[in-house]
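User: I'm writing a short methods note and want a consistent example. For Homoserine O-acetyltransferase, I'll paste the sequence; you return only the structure tokens, no commentary, since I'll be parsing the reply automatically.
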Amino acid sequence: MPINIPKELPASDSLKQEKIFVMDVARAKTQDIRPLNILILNLMPEKEKTELQLLRLLGNTPLQVNISFLRTATHRSKHVSRHHLENFYTTFEDVKNRRYDGMIITGAPIETLEFEDVTYWEELKEIMDWANRNVTSTLHICWGAQASLYYHYGIEKFMMPKKSFGIFKHRISDPTVNLVRGFDDIFHAPHSRYTNVPREEIEKNPDLTLLSVSEEDAPFIIMSKDAKNIMITGHLEYNATALAEEYERDIDKGLEIDIPANYYPNNDVNEQPPNIWRSHSHLLFSNWLNYYVYQETPFKWD
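Assistant:
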């Protein structure tokens, strides 16, 4: 089944070229079906890239999904046009009286800041608090995962000696949990972050389950016991070129940055990086949509 997105959304053409089943809102209204309503709070600066990455994964399940994009009202991104934001995004004021089957809160390149120093932190706290009451399950990515762990469970992030940047191996603790059903015992995932969260704090929290750690024993997939909050500390949504683009951007800025680990063939930046995490990206998103959204959300919200 398709994802339902505005017909004019720029990502639509790319998705169709990739043979992702896309349906515009007008056609979707003619079908007698209860689609899932998913809200995406996109905190990334290059919003159109993130839209495409997420829609590519949300559109590869048997479920029909309505997508809505949310932006912060207290901070306006400088890397996307005002026209794009006004036409395809809404603010919390417009959705706070609605309920959603699922929600995604993306990462943001602000992890070196204290949470309280983020310009939209108070707004984000209000959104996360609302989501716990009005969303069946919320998927948090990278900085969004760290923000959730801090706000909901009091777990602080900490700076690492250097950026975790590249493709790393991970293992799962319990393959019978539905979120990781079908995962290989060892799988790969991209990371791009300067901060981490303490594994011991997660493991001793009675409200959390640590489902996956990296080869360096860093927490990767964390889920609340009630499945309301799912935290992914890396970027399984990334496509094959995302880390290359970040690396080139940092080099152009004159930053000291290592070449992404385990990414370029033979560590040659002129080689095309292979996507060796794609299948697990699709598994994670389809498992989340099926087991924690579709199977749990009410057919009719009260």
